[in-house]
Amino acid sequence: MTEAAYIIGILSAVIFLTELLVRKTFLKHFGTALLVILFTAFLANVGLLPTGSSSDEPIGAYTFIFDTVAPLAIFWLLLPINLKDILKAGRSIILMFLFGSLATAVGVFVGMWVINGPESIGPLYNAIGGMFVGTYTGGSVNFNTLGLHYGVMEEGVLYGGSIVVDNIVTTLWMVVSIAVPRAVHHWWPKRPGQEMKELIGEVTTGQEEDTETVHPLDIGVVMALGLGAVWLSERIATVFPSIPSALFLTGIALLLAQIPGISRLPGLKVMGMFAVYLFLCVIGAYCDLGAMSGLGELGITLLIFTVVTVLVHGLLVYGLAWTFRVNPVIASIASQANVGGGTSALALARSLGREDLVLPSILIGSLGYAVGTFLGFWVAESWLPLLG
Q1: Taking the CA of residue 181 as centre, how many other CA atoms within 13 Å lie in the half-sphere pointing to its CB?
Q2: Are the C-beta atoms of residues 266 and 76 closer than 8 Å to each other?
Q3: Cystine design at 368: which of 17, 87, 138, 265 (Cβ 3.0–4.6 Å)?
């Protein structure tokens, strides 16, 4: 069941089923983004899909979706967006994201203290902590950069266990990030003059917004632009290896978006959203509960550490948003950009009916790539040694 045709076929069927349920049933209140994660996680854990991809056992379809389809989604969905949209919520969401990054660092410190990291994990406890600061600020690029530096990858069980619990908690936090704004927006403190509808967008099926009339000519142009931009951003990143290719891809998209003819190309939205849903399906598939149970005591230790990290992060982010009356949707998107990355933050913005926050969610996700490694090293070298 590792053939690309089988996997992508099943993932496409999941997207079809969830879209149908969102249109026809009460599940529209959950949204396609959340449902594709949950359904794919279920299929993976009952054995109908692989539960992840590794260097030892690579799953080509998953690797392609992570490396190519996810960047394509970001590129395509950036093109139709007016750059002025970020001014509507730019400062608030950026500040919440930066605070969320620091909240993650605090969470890692508290989590490592709770499990007594120097004893339960051993000499690499500070490296593990730094890796989680990196991944919950920017993503897996930062996680692996710190892992390589500290030689964690040579400790197969520790490194593999960290990936397993990271994937499980990331999936669960996506659920929380979607649920919190919908649960609290009726009684969330509002700024003077702020209407209820400004907090969270109207729940829709997305059928009208995501339906387009597309010709093969349009698909050809959209595919050529997208794949060309991904290729170019990766080539530029080889010249500047310290800068993630996602930053260059975002810059290329924003430049092209200023050209009216390109920003109005049919197919950008529908292909972009399908690509996002494929990415979220793989996020769900990586939620491997079986691997968690096979890690034994180390798995429980890592899971407690990771859950405490994310809970502290969430309490601090939502607590700050409550105190200063920041929209809970902005808090959720900023938090999701920290924990899940820009692509999942983008999907969250759409699931909550906030098209105006799509561009800011992608941009703060790119910001996370840039600062995650530096923050991870700082915590690993300056904060965590205090516990030893």
Answers
A1: 34
A2: no
A3: 138
Alpha-carbon separation of residue 91 from 86, 96, 259, 320, 360 (angstroms): 9, 8, 25, 15, 9
Amino acid at 383: W
Determine whether 154 is exposed, middle or buried from the number of CB atoms within 10 Å of its CB (0-12, 13-18, 19+): exposed
| Burial classification of residue 36, based on how many CB atoms lie within 10 Å of its CB (0-12 exposed, 13-18 middle, 19 or more buried) | buried
pLDDT at 257: 85
pLDDT in tens, 269-283: 889 989 989 998 998
How many other C-beta atoms lie within 10 A of the C-beta of residue 381?
A: 12
Cα distance between residue 111 and residue 26, in whole Å:
38
In the structure encoding, which two tokens stand for residue 100, read together? Answer: 């969320």
Q: Torsion over CA of 134, 139, 144 and 150, rounded to 10 degrees?
A: 0
Over the stretch 127-167, which tens digit does the pLDDT of each residue have?
Answer: 999 999 999 998 887 898 899 899 998 887 899 899 999 99
Task: Tell me 55's DSSP state.
Answer: S
Neighbours of 215 (CB within 10 A): 10
The Cα–Cα gap between 343 and 257 comes to 18
* d(C-alpha 97, C-alpha 101), whole Å: 6
User: Among all chains, which residue has been given the structure tokens 């003059």?
Assistant: 193
Q: Quick one: how far is CA 375 from the chain centroid?
A: 18
CA distance 65 to 267: 19
Distance CA(368)–CA(155), nearest Å, equals 26
Cα→Cα distances 371→97, 139, 303, 322, 344, Å:
11, 10, 25, 26, 18
Rg (CA), the chain: 20
Q: Which two tokens stand for residue 295?
A: 């890690």
